[in-house]
Design brief:
By secondary structure, this protein is α/β, with parallel strands linked by helices. It is built from 19 helices and 10 strands. Strand 5 (98-103), helix 4 and strand 6 (130-135) form a beta-alpha-beta unit. Helix 15 packs antiparallel against helix 16. The longest helix has 17 residues, at 228-244.
């Protein structure tokens, strides 16, 4: 039967053993000319390994594991095509230890115990130590994983386990604590590109029998999504298609035909990147969910980083929906969190739900405009000292400086709002936030004038707009290319408690 689609495990229980000192098969069937391209292109040494540079530094656990300098049990965790099985091949061929390969899909407790018993007898007889490789270890039940504990603990076997699932959820804690966890990252585009080019020219691969156009290469790299096995499988299919046509060059059309996936015209580092994200944002702003879904799909199929899409959605929720639908920000941030915790492809559903909600939500850029005007005032030097009543008054001596004197605690008032100056003297009457009548913001717009009359007093008027100035300047962050301005966060409450002179509303104050 096939193990990981790359080498057979034909012995009973899905177990295959190899003699020490780098026997020819090393526990795996040696590749031949008709082996799949990903198998033929497996690195023959750790120096050929591409990617995972964070684990390959001198003295790093992965390098120690491959060279056999330290007998440590290791769990390899990473997405498909990142090199977990390749590392097992390197361990099998580069050490003087006996190597046993096992598939969690077919092996049971009986098989595990048989390997452990054999390893224990051989060690007592002065034989070589045993490395036990278990692929898809997350498929082992708790009982099956329990059967490994004692042998791993006393190093009867050195465990090398591979999993695509989060081991903190799929591997029992006692086994996890006995192993070093190495996290393999999806290969970057340049790593995949390097391996594709190597496969085209290397005698183990295509041996230069065909060439690859830049467009076809980009298509294969994008299609892989960090999975080099997927890229090499597609390359082999494209090479076969070219050979069938009597061609020696793999162009974009041949690559598309071979893998039956059309190339999306999208350059993540060029104009297409910004054009598509701009169309995406403007479609949501224009309340067209169908167009927004199209541009979302274009980005997803092209391999755009879903975290980038999620960030734009979160920004849009405040920039273009704002207080017209305060739930929009919660939905957008939930979608962003889903991208982090769930990942693709499933998280594309969460992104689509957020996009539909934002596109169909009532729109308001009043918050964006308000922030832009406040930032403009600060950058223009407007805004004086903090009013004395609002200054921090919790430390000894602050009262003597007049800090907090006259502060009125709003919660002492039945309305929860009191007359009080909260802005510097030169910004009295400044109206930054001007609510629209869209969606939930209509109620805010009805309440805000009453709040301002209470806080400022009945005689306070809004600061007039300077002559010639646009009362609603261009919102910050309207162009998706620059980073939108970040709003400063408040430092939270000063620690001041209710004051004895907070005696309630002043005469003539409105109810909020």
């Amino acid at each position: 039967m096939e193990f990981d689609g790359l080498f057979p495990l034909t012995e009973p229980g899905g177990v295959r053993t190899a003699s020490p000192a780098g026997a020819a098969s090393a526990g795996f069937t040696a590749w031949s000319e008709d082996s799949p391209l990903p198998v033929r292109m497996r690195p023959a040494s750790i120096d050929e390994l591409v990617g995972q540079q964070h684990l390959l530094a001198p003295g790093a656990p992965l390098r120690q594991l491959v060279t056999g300098t330290t007998p440590m049990s290791v769990i390899l965790w990473g997405p498909p095509g990142t090199g977990k099985t390749t590392i097992a091949h390197l361990v099998a061929g580069a050490t003087d230890r006996k190597f046993v390969a096992m598939s969690a899909l077919t092996a049971g407790v009986k098989d595990v115990r048989a390997v452990i018993d054999t390893a224990r007898r051989e060690r007592r007889a002065g034989g070589p130590p045993t490395v036990l490789f278990i692929d898809e270890v997350h498929r082992f039940s708790k009982t099956q994983q329990d059967s490994l504990l004692a042998a791993v603990e006393d190093r009867t076997v050195t465990l090398l386990a591979a999993t695509t699932e989060n081991p903190y959820f799929s591997v029992i804690s006692p086994l996890l604590s006995r192993c070093v966890l190495l996290t393999l990252q999806a290969l970057g585009d340049e790593d995949v590109r390097r391996l594709v080019r190597r496969a085209v020219t290397d005698p183990r691969g295509l041996g230069g029998a065909v060439t690859l156009t830049d467009e076809a290469e980009e298509h294969l790299v994008r299609l892989a999504g960090g999975d080099v096995r997927k890229a090499l499988t597609a390359l082999e299919a494209a090479a076969g298609s070219a050979a069938a046509q009597g061609a020696t060059e793999i162009d974009l059309a041949t690559a598309e035909q071979a893998v039956d996936v059309a190339a999306v015209r999208y350059d993540r580092d060029g104009d297409a990147h910004y054009d598509v994200i701009s169309a995406f944002i403007k479609s949501m702003r224009g309340s067209d969910p169908d167009a927004a879904l199209h541009w979302l799909a274009r980005m997803l199929v092209a391999g755009e980083d879903p975290r980038f899409i999620a960030r734009r959605i979160v920004i849009f929720a405040s920039e273009d929906v704002g207080m017209a639908d305060p739930q929009a920000l919660l939905i957008a941030t939930a979608a962003a969190q889903a991208v982090q915790s769930v990942g693709l492809p499933e998280a594309q559903l969460n992104l689509a739900q957020a996009v539909v909600h934002l596109a169909t939500a009532p729109k308001s850029n009043a918050v964006t405009t308000a922030l832009g005007e406040a930032l403009a005032d600060v950058r223009a030097g407007r805004g004086g000292a903090v009013p004395p009543a609002l200054r921090d008054a919790h430390y000894p001596g602050s009262r003597g400086l007049g800090h907090g004197k006259g502060y009125r605690y709003p919660h002492d008032d039945p309305k929860g709002v009191v007359r009080q100056q909260y802005v510097p003297d030169d910004l009295i009457g400044a109206d930054y936030y001007r609510p629209t009548d869209h969606g939930a913001e209509r109620a805010v717009g009805e309440r805000l004038p009453r709040l301002r009359r209470i806080v400022r007093g009945p005689a306070a008027d809004a600061r007039p707009t300077p002559p010639g100035a646009d009362p609603r300047p261009t919102p910050p962050g309207a162009d998706p290319r620059p980073t939108p301005p970040g709003a400063g966060s408040s430092n939270g409450p000063s620690g001041d408690g209710p004051k004895a002179n907070d005696s309630g509303p002043a005469a003539g104050e409105d109810q909020p």
